[in-house]
Amino acid sequence: MDASQITSFVASTHQVFTTMLSLTVTAGKPYTCCTVPRFENEVSGIIGMSGDMQGMVVLSFPTSTARNVIRAFTGMDMDPASPDFADAVGELVNMISGAAKAKFEGKNVSISCPSVVIGKGHKVQQPSDAVCITIPFECAGGPFSVEVAIKHAKVAAQPAAAAA
Length: 164
Description:
This protein is α+β, with helices and mostly antiparallel strands and 164 residues long. It is built from 3 helices and 8 strands; from the N terminus they run αββββααββββ. The relative contact order is 0.28.
C-alpha cells in the first residue's frame, strides 16, 4: 500500500462527510494497526476489496459518534438496534470505499456489499498478509477511524507465446 492510496481514503472520507453529512472532518496521523493500540470499536462498517487490490476497509465508531453521524446523515435519531442504523453505517462505508476506489487509476478493483458489526469490544481481524493502516478522524459528532488493509494482487505469469 502506498501513500497515494491512504490519501484516497482521507480525501474520500472528507468528501462523503462534507457532502452527505455537512460535517467537517479532521484527519489525524495514519499509523499501522500493529504499532499503536487499536481504536476501540463499538460500531464497524466493513467492505471487502477484490481485483488488482485485495483486502478490506473498516469504518469504525464509538456508539455515541455513530449515533451523531447517522443523525447528521438521515436527519433522525436512530437506535443502534434498528436495522436502518446498520444500513446507514453500511452506506457510509460503501460511499467512502467507492469514492476511494475511483481514485485508484488504472486498477481494476471491486468492492463487496457492506457488513456491519455492532457490539462493545468487538475486533475486526484484518488480513494477515496485508499492511493495515488506521486513519483517525475527528468531527463535530466525535472521533472515528478508517482502517485500510489492502495489498496488490499478484499477477500470474503470462505464458510465452507459442512459436509459429
